[in-house]
Amino acid sequence: MGDDAPAVPNSHAEGVLVAKFVRAWESGDVDALLDLLTVDVSVSMPPIPLEYHGRDAVAQFLASLMRRRSHDLVPTRANGQPAFGAYLRAPTGGIRHGTGLFVITLTSDRISAMIRFESSVLRWFGLPQSLPD
Whole-angstrom Cα distance, residue 128 to residue 133? Predict the structure, then answer.
C-alpha cells in the first residue's frame, strides 16, 4: 500500500483541496469539511466494521469525532492518493501519538471517500508512531 512517491500533490487543484482538508481537519471545522465532500461520500475504517455513507451520516460521525479529539496531520501518499498520518493532540501539549492513516479519494474538486487505517501502518509510509512536542 505504501508509495515511494513524495507527498506532493498531482495538480494545483489537488493541492488546494488537500490544503483545505488539512486546515478544516486540524481546526475541527466540520462545516468546512462537509463543504469538501461529495453528496455520496463514504467513510470506512478497516478492520473495524464501521462505515458511513452519504453526507448526513458522515456529518454526524465527523461532529462526534471533532468534539472529542483534535489531530495534527502529516501528509504522505497511498496508492497515488493523498494520505495523512493523524496524530492526537494532548490537551496539555506534549508528545502526539499516531492514531491512524487517513487516505482520501478525490473526485473532481471534492472528496468522495475517506479510509482510516490503524496506526500500525504509519511505518509503511515512513511516518513515526509519535511526534515530539
Answer: 13
